Amino acid sequence: MVIDKLIVQTSAAAGSIAAQYAYFPALNATLNGTSAVLLLTGRILIAKGRMAAHRLCMIAAVVASALFLCCYLFFHFEVGNIRFLGQGWARPVYFSILISHVTLAIVIVPLAIITLTRGLKAQYARHRAIAKWTWPLWMYVSVTGVIVYFMLYQWFPHS
Asked: Whole-prediction pTM value?
Protein backbone atom coordinates (compact mmCIF):
# COMPACT_ATOMS: atom_id res chain seq x y z
CA MET A 1 0.00 0.00 0.00
CA VAL A 2 1.07 3.64 -0.34
CA ILE A 3 1.69 4.17 3.37
CA ASP A 4 3.94 1.11 3.42
CA LYS A 5 6.13 2.77 0.79
CA LEU A 6 6.43 5.87 2.95
CA ILE A 7 8.04 4.04 5.86
CA VAL A 8 11.58 5.27 5.93
CA GLN A 9 14.56 3.66 7.59
CA THR A 10 17.59 5.46 8.92
CA SER A 11 21.01 3.85 9.10
CA ALA A 12 21.17 0.37 10.59
CA ALA A 13 22.56 1.76 13.83
CA ALA A 14 19.65 4.16 14.25
CA GLY A 15 16.91 1.70 13.29
CA SER A 16 13.76 2.70 11.43
CA ILE A 17 11.33 5.55 11.83
CA ALA A 18 8.41 4.48 13.97
CA ALA A 19 5.23 3.89 11.99
CA GLN A 20 3.36 6.78 13.64
CA TYR A 21 5.94 9.23 12.21
CA ALA A 22 6.56 7.58 8.82
CA TYR A 23 4.04 9.73 6.93
CA PHE A 24 5.56 13.04 8.03
CA PRO A 25 8.24 13.33 5.30
CA ALA A 26 5.62 12.94 2.55
CA LEU A 27 3.23 15.25 4.37
CA ASN A 28 5.97 17.87 4.69
CA ALA A 29 6.82 17.61 0.99
CA THR A 30 3.13 17.90 0.13
CA LEU A 31 2.80 21.04 2.25
CA ASN A 32 5.91 22.54 0.59
CA GLY A 33 4.58 21.66 -2.85
CA THR A 34 1.18 23.10 -1.99
CA SER A 35 2.84 26.30 -0.88
CA ALA A 36 4.74 26.52 -4.18
CA VAL A 37 1.56 26.02 -6.21
CA LEU A 38 -0.26 28.65 -4.15
CA LEU A 39 2.64 31.09 -4.51
CA LEU A 40 2.68 30.65 -8.29
CA THR A 41 -1.10 30.95 -8.50
CA GLY A 42 -1.05 34.07 -6.32
CA ARG A 43 1.61 35.63 -8.52
CA ILE A 44 -0.41 34.94 -11.66
CA LEU A 45 -3.58 36.31 -10.07
CA ILE A 46 -2.02 39.60 -9.00
CA ALA A 47 -0.51 40.02 -12.47
CA LYS A 48 -4.07 39.75 -13.81
CA GLY A 49 -5.29 42.34 -11.30
CA ARG A 50 -7.30 39.86 -9.25
CA MET A 51 -6.31 41.21 -5.84
CA ALA A 52 -8.90 39.39 -3.70
CA ALA A 53 -8.02 36.01 -5.20
CA HIS A 54 -4.31 36.84 -4.86
CA ARG A 55 -4.83 37.64 -1.20
CA LEU A 56 -6.60 34.31 -0.58
CA CYS A 57 -3.85 32.36 -2.33
CA MET A 58 -1.10 34.08 -0.41
CA ILE A 59 -2.85 33.59 2.93
CA ALA A 60 -3.29 29.92 2.03
CA ALA A 61 0.43 29.74 1.16
CA VAL A 62 1.27 31.16 4.59
CA VAL A 63 -1.01 28.58 6.23
CA ALA A 64 0.55 25.72 4.23
CA SER A 65 4.05 26.92 5.12
CA ALA A 66 3.15 27.35 8.80
CA LEU A 67 1.67 23.84 8.90
CA PHE A 68 4.83 22.56 7.22
CA LEU A 69 7.01 24.24 9.83
CA CYS A 70 4.97 22.77 12.71
CA CYS A 71 5.03 19.28 11.22
CA TYR A 72 8.73 19.52 10.35
CA LEU A 73 9.72 20.61 13.84
CA PHE A 74 7.51 17.96 15.47
CA PHE A 75 8.93 15.21 13.25
CA HIS A 76 12.55 16.14 13.90
CA PHE A 77 11.92 16.62 17.62
CA GLU A 78 10.44 13.12 17.80
CA VAL A 79 12.64 11.28 15.27
CA GLY A 80 15.88 13.26 15.13
CA ASN A 81 18.01 13.83 12.06
CA ILE A 82 17.82 11.59 9.02
CA ARG A 83 21.16 10.89 7.37
CA PHE A 84 21.54 11.28 3.62
CA LEU A 85 22.91 8.01 2.25
CA GLY A 86 23.50 9.02 -1.36
CA GLN A 87 27.07 8.65 -2.64
CA GLY A 88 29.27 10.25 -5.29
CA TRP A 89 27.90 13.27 -7.17
CA ALA A 90 24.65 13.14 -5.19
CA ARG A 91 26.28 14.22 -1.92
CA PRO A 92 27.54 17.66 -2.97
CA VAL A 93 24.35 18.27 -4.95
CA TYR A 94 22.16 17.29 -1.99
CA PHE A 95 24.10 19.30 0.58
CA SER A 96 24.28 22.36 -1.69
CA ILE A 97 20.52 22.29 -2.08
CA LEU A 98 19.97 21.54 1.62
CA ILE A 99 22.26 24.30 2.91
CA SER A 100 20.74 26.93 0.61
CA HIS A 101 17.23 25.68 1.46
CA VAL A 102 17.75 25.86 5.23
CA THR A 103 19.52 29.22 5.10
CA LEU A 104 16.81 30.81 2.98
CA ALA A 105 14.05 29.13 5.01
CA ILE A 106 15.34 31.00 8.05
CA VAL A 107 15.45 34.26 6.09
CA ILE A 108 12.00 33.82 4.56
CA VAL A 109 10.07 33.63 7.83
CA PRO A 110 10.38 37.31 8.79
CA LEU A 111 10.19 38.38 5.12
CA ALA A 112 6.92 36.51 4.62
CA ILE A 113 5.45 37.94 7.82
CA ILE A 114 6.41 41.50 6.86
CA THR A 115 5.15 41.05 3.29
CA LEU A 116 1.84 39.57 4.45
CA THR A 117 1.36 42.26 7.08
CA ARG A 118 1.97 45.07 4.61
CA GLY A 119 -0.44 43.54 2.12
CA LEU A 120 -3.17 43.05 4.71
CA LYS A 121 -2.73 46.62 5.94
CA ALA A 122 -3.14 47.89 2.37
CA GLN A 123 0.39 49.32 2.35
CA TYR A 124 0.68 48.26 -1.25
CA ALA A 125 3.79 50.20 -2.28
CA ARG A 126 5.69 48.86 0.73
CA HIS A 127 4.18 45.41 0.15
CA ARG A 128 5.38 45.34 -3.48
CA ALA A 129 8.82 46.61 -2.49
CA ILE A 130 9.48 43.63 -0.22
CA ALA A 131 7.39 41.08 -2.16
CA LYS A 132 9.81 41.31 -5.09
CA TRP A 133 12.40 39.73 -2.74
CA THR A 134 10.08 37.54 -0.71
CA TRP A 135 8.33 35.75 -3.56
CA PRO A 136 11.36 34.26 -5.37
CA LEU A 137 13.05 33.28 -2.09
CA TRP A 138 9.88 31.68 -0.74
CA MET A 139 9.30 29.87 -4.04
CA TYR A 140 12.88 28.58 -3.97
CA VAL A 141 12.47 27.33 -0.40
CA SER A 142 9.18 25.60 -1.23
CA VAL A 143 10.51 23.90 -4.37
CA THR A 144 13.84 22.87 -2.86
CA GLY A 145 11.96 21.44 0.13
CA VAL A 146 10.28 19.02 -2.25
CA ILE A 147 13.61 18.24 -3.94
CA VAL A 148 15.23 17.52 -0.57
CA TYR A 149 12.36 15.13 0.24
CA PHE A 150 12.82 13.24 -3.03
CA MET A 151 16.57 13.03 -2.64
CA LEU A 152 16.43 11.94 1.00
CA TYR A 153 13.43 9.59 0.97
CA GLN A 154 12.78 8.49 -2.61
CA TRP A 155 15.83 8.66 -4.88
CA PHE A 156 18.43 7.67 -2.28
CA PRO A 157 16.30 5.88 0.33
CA HIS A 158 17.53 4.32 3.52
CA SER A 159 16.37 0.84 2.64
From this structure: 0.85
pLDDT string in tens for the chain (159-residue length): 333 333 333 332 344 788 888 899 999 999 999 999 999 999 999 999 999 999 999 999 999 999 999 999 999 999 988 889 899 999 999 999 999 999 999 999 999 999 999 999 999 999 999 999 999 999 999 999 999 999 999 898 775
| CATH code 1.20.1250.20 for 2-155 | no
The conformational region for residue 84 under phi > 0 = left, psi -120 to 50 = alpha, else beta, is beta
